[in-house]
Structures are given as structure tokens and as C-alpha cells.
Design brief:
5-stranded mixed sheet; single chain; Heat Shock Protein 90; 544 residues; Helix Hairpins
Length: 544
């Protein structure tokens, strides 16, 4: 596709496909031949051949001005322009040959002071009635068409090149604007000069058709003269004017480029860069405003950096506090559990005492789990999760967690736990200890939120890239407004807080962080009053 030139966007110059431009130019040429044919013998030979030649040249110029410019490699563009030149030649010759066939042999011209009637000369026939050129009219047509081809297509390419530079550099935008003013001034001077002259081809009273032919011929001649004189004048002044305009524009844009360099420095991280303010015009105002903005930005970033450091130090202190407190709490809890085990052996003969001790032990175990979760999360914040991922066959992990959870769920809440998985489960990449920790947390969470008589099912599902481990329960479900927050640390839903089911809101947060540390993910679907399904997906060793 040819590039659209802005000032020609309405009238369509240099935008038409070759075939469409050729069709339009051909219709224009045929219309011109029809006018000449209708004028009959009103013109003598020089006048008629002049009108015919100017009409063919105008037709070719129309074709050249409408045909779009090619894009791509230089070789492709050269072939395209050669095709345009060939079409131009065929169009010119065809119009002249058609005129030779259809024009009546009633043309008047002088031979040795006499007069006679005859036809247009053939393409290969010489004529002595064209002055010193002593050539066929078609020779003049081809000469003018060749000049038109070079001038029009070269001018279009120069203008397109100028447009490209206008978009890239401000200095060329200003330079091209000044050049356009010079071109317009030259054009006006040429028009003024021609307005003082009298260019006419006819000298007799003509019919309406003859008047139209004469008027159009004079118009073509005047426009062609304007184009030639303007082109010559531009060629004379273009180099000095371009140099002068360029250096004038550089003086204007130098400060803009300096400002661009400063903005690039700030973008690269040098917030101390400032623009040198020179003058009192609009550019100077822009430089001053930019410096003020840069100073404000530097101050804001400095304040934000100080706030960031303060918050980072505060968070680090909190992590260290959690890690220290949870570590210190593990020792007394372990001591309490040891003494409880001793008391349980001594209370075998006292049922009431044994019941009280069992209650204390369950509370102690709950406290132990919370301390372990807090300690693990605190270490994660300080050091990162220690995960060793390796190919793993998960059936053993599923069996161990199932048997442990089944006994605890039945003893604590009379909840049934079932295990359903395929015999051949593909290997996955996972840390065995961390995966077991994930399953234990999900099962404890399911037991906590499932009423007595409910069912929890642990299952697997093999997918193309992952293996999904699912923990389904028939519990209370999760409210829709709570679903986006259940993976947050210390988050507990309103129902969990109201029922005082225990837990600190750390288990699911730990599940999510452990799964993501093993390049997996976790998700949940839940229906309030029906149950929930937690799914952990971990990558397969040999994905399909």
C-alpha cells in the first residue's frame, strides 16, 4: 500500500492503484479526443497538433499524479516505477494512434506557401511543419511525458521523504514549513508573471466546442508553464533556502533537545538533572516548569524512600518478634505436653481426671499447631520457604495423611474421611514434607467446618499439565463475600468467629504459599450450606 500524503488526502494524489489511475486517465484522454473530433476543421495543423499534444501530456500527468507511490525494497520500487513508465508510454502512443485513425483528413497546413488537406502524420513519419524541430508531434509528446514522469515522481518522493523527517525531528518540521512558504511564494510570483502575458493558440471566431478546446488548451499550457517555471525557480533557490532554514530551525530547537536530554536522564534514574533556563519565551517557561516538576518529584521520591525504609524496618522487626515469640512458646508447650502425658498415665484409674486432662491436651495440641504455623510463616518472611522439589509419587503421602486424618476426624467430630484416587498417578514435582503439610492443613480445615455425620473425600484428578488433589467436604460452605479473602493471613470469616471453632486464620494462607513455592496453585469452589472443594494443582514430571 502506498503511504498517504497529508495535503493530498482529499483530492487523492499519489493514492490510487495503478489500474484505477490508468482507467481514469484513459477516460480523460478519450474525452479530449472526442472534443477535438467534434471541433472539426476549425483549427489549422499547428493549432490542432498543439491541442492534441497538450491533451496527451495532461492525460499522462493525471495518471502520474494519481498513481500511488510504491513501498518496500528499492528493487521492488524500481520495478514498480518502470511499470508506470511503460504504462505511460503505451497510453501516450495509444492516444496518438487513436487520433490518427479517427480524426478526419480535413486538417489545413502549409506546404511551400500553399495549402492542402491531409491526415495526422504517422508515428514514424516526419513533418516539416513543426518549425525547427522537424519531427513528428509524437516526439514532442514523448519528450514532455518523459520530463513529466521524472519531475512528478521525483517530487512526490522528495515530499514523502520530507514528511518522514518532519515526524522524527522538530528541526526538520520547522525547516519544511519554511520551505513550503518559499514554494508558495515562488508559485505566486510565477502566476503574477504569467498574468502579465497573453498566451493564446487560436485567433478566429470559433464554435462553442472550439471555444472549449481552445480554453482547455490554454489552461493546460498555462498550468504547464507555471509548473515548469516553479520547478526551475525552486531548483535554483532550494539549496540555499534549505540550509538557511535548517540552521534557523536548529537555533530554535536546540533548547528543546536539551530538555529532551534532561528528561531522558530523569527517566534513567538521575532525579537531580535539571534543564538550563535560557530566554523568556515559551520554551524557557517550559524549562522552568519542568525543573519545578523535577524538584517536586525528587522530594517526593526521597520521602517515599524514607517511608519505605521505615516500613521495611518495622516489618522486619515484626517478623523477628513473631519468630522469636513462636520459638520461645514451643519450649513451654512441649513441657506441658510431656507432663500431660505423665498425668494421663497416672489418671487411668480416675475417669473424671482423665477427661479433664484430655481436654487440656487437645487445647495444648491446638496451641502447638498455631505456634508451629506462626513460626513457619515468620521464617518464610525472613528467609523464604525452604522447599526441595523433586519427582514424587504421591500415593504414599495420600495414604499417610488419610489414615491420620480419618482417626482424628472420627474421634473429635464423628466425621467420615474417604480416600479415592487412581491406581496409577503420574509423578509430580513436589516437596514430600510440604505436600503432606498442605494436605494436613486442608483436612484439619475441612474437619473444623464439617458437622458431625458429614463426609470428607480426598481424591485426585490427572490433567494434561498437572495433577489435581482435591479435598471435598459436606460442611457449612463459604460465603461468596469471604471467598476472595480466605487465603489472607489471619483472616477468619464471620461465621468462624461467631462459632469460635478455633484457628488463627493461618492454615489456608500457608497452603497457598507452599503450593506456589512448588510451582503449583490452589483454588476453591464452595456453596453455602452444601460444602466446599479445595484443589491443589502441582506440575507433572512428564506433561502431555
Amino acid at each position: 500500500m502506498g503511504r498517504r500524503l497529508p495535503f493530498t488526502s482529499i483530492i487523492g494524489l499519489w493514492r490510487w492503484p495503478v489500474w484505477l489511475a490508468l482507467a481514469f486517465a484513459t477516460l480523460l484522454g478519450l474525452g479530449w479526443l472526442a472534443l477535438l473530433h467534434a471541433s472539426g476543421t476549425e483549427f489549422d495543423f499547428p493549432e490542432f497538433t498543439g491541442s492534441l499534444s497538450f491533451g496527451i501530456v495532461a492525460t499522462v500527468l493525471t495518471f502520474l499524479f494519481l498513481t500511488r507511490l510504491p513501498q518496500g525494497r528499492w528493487g521492488h520500487q524500481l520495478r514498480y516505477e518502470l511499470l508506470v513508465a511503460l504504462i505511460m508510454l503505451v497510453l501516450s502512443v495509444s492516444l496518438y494512434q487513436l487520433a490518427y485513425w479517427v480524426m478526419p483528413p480535413l486538417l489545413y497546413y502549409n506546404i511551400m506557401g500553399g495549402s492542402t488537406y491531409g491526415r495526422l502524420p504517422r508515428l514514424d513519419q516526419q513533418s516539416s511543419d513543426l518549425g525547427d524541430l522537424n519531427s513528428n508531434p509524437m516526439s514532442i509528446v514523448l519528450l514532455l511525458n518523459g520530463f513529466s514522469l521524472v519531475a512528478v515522481r521525483l517530487a512526490a518522493r522528495c515530499y514523502r521523504l520530507m514528511l518522514a523527517y518532519r515526524k522524527r525531528r522538530l528541526v526538520w518540521y520547522i525547516t519544511s514549513s519554511q520551505l513550503m512558504l518559499v514554494v508558495m511564494a515562488v508559485l505566486l510570483l510565477v502566476i503574477l508573471f504569467l498574468s502579465l502575458t497573453n498566451i493564446r493558440l487560436g485567433n478566429a471566431t470559433l464554435s462553442p466546442v472550439g471555444q472549449v478546446v481552445l480554453l482547455l488548451t490554454e489552461g493546460i499550457l498555462i498550468l504547464g508553464t507555471i509548473g515548469i517555471l516553479t520547478g526551475v525557480a525552486i531548483l535554483v533557490v532550494i539549496v540555499p533556502v534549505t540550509i538557511l532554514a535548517y540552521f534557523t530551525a536548529r537555533g530554535i530547537t536546540r533548547r528543546v533537545y536539551t530538555l529532551i536530554n534532561v528528561t531522558n536522564a530523569i527517566q534513567a534514574g538521575d532525579y537531580t538533572a535539571r534543564a538550563l533556563v535560557t530566554g523568556e519565551d515559551e520554551v524557557a517557561q517550559l524549562q522552568a516548569n519542568f525543573n519545578a516538576m523535577a524538584a517536586t518529584l525528587e522530594t517526593t521520591l526521597r520521602d517515599l524512600a524514607a517511608e519505605r525504609d521505615a516500613v521495611s524496618q518495622l516489618l522486619q522487626s515484626r517478623r523477628e518478634m513473631f519468630a522469636g515469640v513462636s520459638h520461645e512458646l514451643r519450649t513451654p508447650v512441649a513441657t506441658v505436653r510431656a507432663y500431660l502425658a505423665s498425668l494421663q498415665r497416672q489418671a487411668m484409674q480416675n475417669p473424671d481426671l482423665k477427661t479433664d486432662i484430655d481436654i487440656i491436651e487437645r487445647a495444648t495440641l491446638h496451641l502447638q499447631r498455631m505456634i508451629d504455623d506462626v513460626f513457619l510463616l515468620a521464617r518464610t518472611d525472613m528467609e523464604g520457604l525452604n522447599v526441595t522439589v523433586a519427582p514424587l509419587e504421591i500415593s504414599g503421602v495420600l495414604e499417610r495423611t488419610y489414615h491420620t486424618a480419618k482417626q482424628q476426624a472420627w474421634q473429635s467430630k464423628k466425621v467420615e474421611v474417604a480416600l479415592e484416587y487412581q491406581v496409577q498417578i503420574p509423578l509430580i514435582y513436589a516437596d514430600e514434607t510440604r505436600l503432606e503439610q498442605i494436605l494436613n492443613n486442608l483436612l484439619k480445615n475441612a474437619v473444623r467446618h464439617t458437622s458431625p455425620g458429614g463426609v470428607i473425600v480426598v481424591g485426585t484428578q490427572v490433567e494434561a499439565q498437572t495433577v489435581a488433589i482435591q479435598v471435598k467436604d459436606t460442611g457449612e460452605g463459604i460465603a461468596p463475600e469471604d471467598l476472595p479473602h480466605i487465603w489472607e493471613r489471619f483472616y477468619r470469616s464471620a461465621s468462624a468467629r461467631a462459632s469460635d471453632q478455633g484457628g488463627a486464620g493461618l492454615g489456608l494462607a500457608l497452603v497457598k504459599e507452599l503450593a506456589e513455592a512448588m510451582a503449583g496453585n490452589v483454588s476453591v469452589t464452595s456453596t453455602l450450606g452444601i460444602g466446599s472443594c479445595f484443589t491443589v494443582r502441582l506440575p507433572r514430571v512428564n506433561p502431555q
